[in-house]
Amino acid sequence: MELGILSLSDLQTDPATGKLRDAGARTREIVFYAVAADQAGLDVFALGEHHSPDFAVANPAIPLAAIAQATENIRLTSAVSVLSTLDPVRLHQDFSSLDLLSNSRAEIIAGRSAFLEAFTLFGIDPADYDDVFTQKLDLLLAIRASEHVTWSGRHRPALDHLPIPPRPQQDKLPLWLGVGGTPASAERAGRLGLPMVLGLIGGDLRSVRPLVEHYRAVGQAAGHVPDTLRLGLTSHFYVGKTSQDARRDLYPHYREYLRPKTPGGRGWLVAPDHFQAVSSPFGALMTGSPQEVIDKILTEREILGTDRFMGQIDFGGMPAHMVNDSIELLATEVAPTIRKETGRH
């Protein structure tokens, strides 16, 4: 089982100035976390894409390229690339270049995004939400499969046996589909035989088991072997030395990250009882002592059959020392037991 960390690069208000944190400092901080994860022996680092002033990173490929030069082993992926608003040709070129820089460590997690900022920015009609994603995914798959591509669709100019360099160092760029929980998205991943990453934000992890089973059933009915139908999970994450320490230290940052940032804006107020519920053994929030986190990751694997877990490691203005301590505990106390229990050496 693979273990890694994820950042969405959120920017929080500095209490001293009342202004958002500096995006440059935040981006450099994220590079440092990825380097620490590589040095600690974790398997994967994922970086999100957003197009609002509340986040520092709009194009994950650029910071990931910097990370590639400062790391040796960790796999590098987007989480997610908002494919509906991107040109699949450019996306493949960017991550092929990352693959060449990193010596075969690049991946893409493609998704549709729950936010509309990118659609407005790039002139995509939200009414075409599903159709544009379907067509662009079809083109991205064609580019992965062949050096010369012939393709036509409604949302991008046609290609007539055109080469699309550079090619990645890997035979194909690994491509996962990011899914927020809709049956249609899981069904698409299964039908195409693509690994799926499921984002657990709230609720009870047992409630998503039917979705995962549907994904695998559709994939096997389409003729894909079970080994290709891999499942990744992401959730908000913090591991502390003790359960009490972890919950006490995390709560204000979890509450800050999820609160509505504007009157009537998206987000919700996290009351203490909700925090306790979501951090319970079957809740979506991955936090607690190292043993608690071990137990919860293994429970997720038992219930859902997960192949990869990535914890969102830095959010809500968490100070660097908290993030670094959490990365260290994940790598030194959680990962060895998980790998032993799941048979990975």
Order of helices and strands: EHEHEEHEHHEEEHEHEHHEHEH
Percent of residues in helices: 40-55%
Overall body shape: globular
Radius of gyration: 20 Å
Query: Which regions have little confidence, pLDDT < 50, spanning 5+ residues?
Result: none
Mean pLDDT across all residues, rounded? 95
Notes on the protein architecture:
Helix 3 packs across helix 5 (129-145) and helix 10 (290-304) packs across helix 11 (320-341). This protein is 43% helix and 17% strand. The longest helix is centred in the C-terminal third of the chain and has 22 residues, at 320-341. The protein has 11 helices and 12 strands. With 345 residues, it is an alpha/beta fold. It has an 8-stranded parallel β-barrel with strand order 1-2-3-5-8-9-10-12, surrounded by 7 helices. Strands 6-7 form a two-stranded antiparallel ribbon. The chain is globular and about 60 Å long.
Write the layout of secondary structure elements.
Blueprint: E1 2-7, H1 23-40, E2 44-47, H2 61-70, E3 75-78, E4 81-82, H3 88-102, E5 106-111, H4 117-122, H5 129-145, E6 148-151, E7 159-163, E8 175-179, H6 183-192, E9 196-200, H7 209-221, E10 231-239, H8 243-258, H9 272-278, E11 286-288, H10 290-304, E12 308-312, H11 320-341
